[in-house]
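Hi all, posting the design record for the shared folder.

TITLE: backbone redesign
STEP: 1 of 1
STRUCTURE INPUT:
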């Protein structure tokens, strides 16, 4: 059974978790399918933005409980410690592939985003969520810790005390609280509609500038204690954009009051 669908139209890749009857819970097949979906877009120059969503009543309820049974008797170290996807294992790649993509990723969240599902959402650049959505760093409920890239992603988004409280307790929290903590970008009535509207706005911007902006933001976040390096990278990236075909088309389109056409 298909776990993920990928549809590309007008430079927007719509990636949908398609296990709606199971609240898009993560079993081994779905973990592989999500990682493969993200990786399939890595070298696609036609894609300018990605919209990530889940079908049905929930974005993602986290790890499928039945998967615990499948792991019984296996050596966890043999499964988790090998770096099978660059600097990550498969579990970590599922959220991190969206951060690694060179184009913006917008996540639409409804119902619940628990455990691994919450960490997948953290990998996106922007998160829109419905007002009644519930979220949780669920792993402590099962006597484990977040291990799908959450500890690499959360410190960029919220405070240490918030991370500690949510990790230690596994308590559910509202998206209103998530927005206050910086874990959700906006609370909206129609998350997928809001995600698509933003994607359409991004898709008509300079493709090279958008990719450069995502890479520059990532550089700034990972070098936040090295101001000299960030300032130099900012200048280097700008120098590569200025006067190039995409930038010249943006200028021409603005002066001629028309939509830009990028080649």
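Okay, here is what came back for every position:
SEQUENCE:
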């Amino acid at each position: 059974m298909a776990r993920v669908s990928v549809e590309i139209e007008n430079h927007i890749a719509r990636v949908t978790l398609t296990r709606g009857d199971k609240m898009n819970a993560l079993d081994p097949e779905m973990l592989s399918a999500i990682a493969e979906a993200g990786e399939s877009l890595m070298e696609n120059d036609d894609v300018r933005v990605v919209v990530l969503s889940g079908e049905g009543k929930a974005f993602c309820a986290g790890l499928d409980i039945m998967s615990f049974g499948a792991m019984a008797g296996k050596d966890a170290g043999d499964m988790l410690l090998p770096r099978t996807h660059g600097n990550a294992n498969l579990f970590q790649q599922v959220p991190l592939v969206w951060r690694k993509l060179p184009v913006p990723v917008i996540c639409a969240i409804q119902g619940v985003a628990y455990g691994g599902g919450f960490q997948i959402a953290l990998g996106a650049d922007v998160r829109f969520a419905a007002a009644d959505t519930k979220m949780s760093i669920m792993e402590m409920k099962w006597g484990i810790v977040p291990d799908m890239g959450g500890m690499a992603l959360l410190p960029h988004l919220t405070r240490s005390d918030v991370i500690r409280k949510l990790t230690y307790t596994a308590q559910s929290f509202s998206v209103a609280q998530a927005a206050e903590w910086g874990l959700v970008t906006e609370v909206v009535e129609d998350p997928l509609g809001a995600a698509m509207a933003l994607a359409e706005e991004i898709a008509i911007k300079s493709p090279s500038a958008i990719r450069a902006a995502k890479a520059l933001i990532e550089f700034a976040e990972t070098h936040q204690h090295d101001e000299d390096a960030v300032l130099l990278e900012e200048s280097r990236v700008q120098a590569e954009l200025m006067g190039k075909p995409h930038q010249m088309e943006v200028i021409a389109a603005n002066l001629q009051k028309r939509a830009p056409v990028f080649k």
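COMMENT: The longest strand covers residues 4-9.
Let me know if anyone wants the other runs.
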